[in-house]
Amino acid sequence: MHIISRIAITCSAGLLVAGCTKSDQTAKNTSAADTAAPAAAPAPAPAPAPALSLADVAGKWQMQATPQSGKDTSATKYVLTATADTTGWVITFPSGLKVPLQVSVSGDSLIEHTGTFASQRRKGVKVMTEGSLKLQDGKLVGTTTAHYAKAGPDSVITLRTEGSKMP
Question: Of all helices (H) and strands (E), which one includes residue 158?
Fold first, then answer.
C-alpha cells in the first residue's frame, strides 16, 4: 500500500503542475489581450462626389463620340448646346441636323436621351441615343449607346463621348 501512495502523490503532483501551467497560460493570454492596443478603426468611406448642377455645364460644348469597338472607329462630331435647366438642350451635327436632347441629373452624372433621328454614321438609318456624362477636369466625358432601327445584329454601338467647352 505504501507503493500505491507514492504513485498517487506523483500522479497528483503531475496533474497539479499541468493544471497550474494551463491556468498560468490562460492568465498570460488574458493579460496580454487586456494590454494589447485596440484594433484600428476602418478607414472612413470617401466622401461622395458633389452633385452636378445643370448650371455647371450650361453653354456650348464641342463634342465627339468614338465607337469603342468595330471596324469604323471614326469620331462623330457635334455641338452640344446646354442650358441651366432641362429645356432647350440640342445636339447640332455638322450637316445642320438639330436633335433635341432630354436631360436629367443623377448625383454627379448627366443622363441624356434623344428621340429617333437620322443617323449621322449610317446613311438612311434611324437611331436613338442615350448616355451619361460627368464633368471631369473641365471636360464632359462618358459613354453613349446608339440604338439603330432595323439594323440587324449591329443594332447597338457603344461610344466613348468627350467634349470641351467652347469659348
Answer: strand 156-165
pLDDT tens readout for residues 68-105: 998 889 999 999 999 999 999 999 999 999 999 999 99
Q: Name beta bridge partners: 101.
A: 114
Coil/strand/helix, residue 132: strand
Nine cell digits for residue 94: 455638322
Q: Which CATH architecture has domain 54-165?
A: Beta Barrel (2.40)
pLDDT at position 49: 67
Instruction: Judge contact between 42 and 74, C-beta under 8 A.
Output: no
Tell me the C-alpha distance between 122 and 136, whole Å.
30
| Residue with the three cell numbers 496533474 | 15
Residue 8 has, within 13 A of its CA and on its CB side, a CA count of 5
Tell me the per-residue pLDDT of 5-26, one tens digit each, with 9 for 90 and over. 444 444 444 444 444 445 455 4
- Give the cell for residue 18: 499541468
List alpha helices for 36-148, DSSP H: 54-57
Q: Exposure string (b/e) for 70-82, b if CB count within 10 Å is 16 or more?
A: eeeeeebebbbbb
- All three cell numbers of 6: 507514492
What count of other Cβ atoms lies within 10 Å of the Cβ of residue 164?
12
Please tell me the pTM assigned to this model: 0.69
